[in-house]
UniProtKB/TrEMBL annotation:
Keywords: Hydrolase. PANTHER family: AB HYDROLASE SUPERFAMILY PROTEIN C4A8.06C, ALPHA_BETA HYDROLASE FOLD-3 DOMAIN-CONTAINING PROTEIN-RELATED. InterPro entries: AB_hydrolase_3, AB_hydrolase_fold, GDXG_lipolytic_enzyme. Residues 69-272 form the Alpha/beta hydrolase fold-3 domain. The lineage of its organism: Bacteria, Bacillati, Actinomycetota, Actinomycetes, Pseudonocardiales. This is Esterase. The keyword Hydrolase applies. It comes from the Bacteria. The keyword Cell membrane does not apply. One of its GO terms (molecular function) is hydrolase activity.
Amino acid sequence: MDPELEAFLALFPKTDLTDLETSRKNFAELAVAVPAPDLTDIHVENRTVPADPEVPVRIYRPHLAQGALVWMHGGGWVMGDLDTEHPWAARLAELSGAVVISVGYRLAPENPFPAALDDSYAVLNWTAEHAAELGIDPARIAVGGHSAGGGLAAGVALRARDEQGPPIRFQLLNQPGLDDRQETWSARTFTDTPWMNRDKVTEAWRHYLGSGPATRYAAPARATDLAGLPPAYVSTAEFCPSRDEDIEYALRLLRAGVPVELHQWAGTFHGSQAILSAEVSQRQLAELGAVVGRALAG
């Protein structure tokens, strides 16, 4: 493991998602400790997207932005909101120069699948319909997310393809949760890795799926046809249970004729880019911003 990251392991709270009240409290406290970037040149606005129910969003608009990223936060589908995601959504807007629309989707287990996907898809449609108001080109809309949010982004891309929804220019999948079956080597083997391990992943999927089946929109790795999806950037962490399913998804996209950029970050663990003092984290965040900027450039 990267030594700069390893030095912080003792500070991470132990959570297993069996006590959601404590897990959510710890997650929020970690988020508060992360400083947001300078927002002087970025207009930040809270809105609600009409849907059933309405979906809260936070919009980050850099000066002269021409494209937009619909962004879904991490947290195992059970934690996180617009406030916990604020430092990361703001950074993405700052680093990419794109409008970032952070989605406050409903959380499981109170609202199991497809609630979060429906909310995210509603925001994609709203973004396309309100492109002029947002000051963006409707042909330059991307979807993306981290962890559970990455899985949601992949599911939104599949649904938009299948339902002839708004055209998506690009999908940014950062350490996404894609496969509930947990059959890969990393999913079976990483039982004691930092922040995310096999048992925690199992609990997250149990909460998210509820009593319903795992469809391709809930677990995109189950999709049998990946042709016609938007170009993708897939990022993985070396010590992450989702690592191998993410790499396999990237390979399957490639085999289906989808352009893919895949980056496996050595020495990292799931979510370790939150340790901003580490050089590898700084490179990860800079790359995410640069990738979005390039994808949405004229």
